[in-house]
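Thanks for the sequence, V.! I ran NAD(P)H dehydrogenase (quinone) right away. Repeating your input here for the record:
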Amino acid sequence: MTTAFMNKSKLIRDKIRQADGILFASPEYNYSVSGPLKNAIDWGSRPPNVWADKAAALVSAAGGSGGNRQQYHIRQIGVFLDLHFINKPEFFLRRPLAPPQKCDRDGNLIDEVIREKLKEVHLSLLPFGKFAKFLQNASEIANQNSILGWL
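Predicted structure:
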């Protein structure tokens, strides 16, 4: 592998490691996760797994399903990665270019109702991410100070 490629994967891993929470925003490809997103997930999972104990939320856009199938696949992948997803609100943007149009031709969200629903996802992830980080730090402290730590 080239040095430039390894540097980019390290940059992605560092950004994930520093984040309190992760917002996965992706279209659905062939009823599943897009190739680029799956590749990024796989690079983050290489030892040591930088996804572990991160809070996460999902948003997607696709035809009739709104991307729900790819979201469920990411949730399944997240079990192995030890990601902690918010359960609600769910966000599936169905037919973003069909009337009434929710996005303009450049992909910018123009529907205010949908914009508010997306904002709810963000607002739900923020405290969940802070709480997950708090639990992770508390667990590390407990492990360092535990009588069982020497076992």
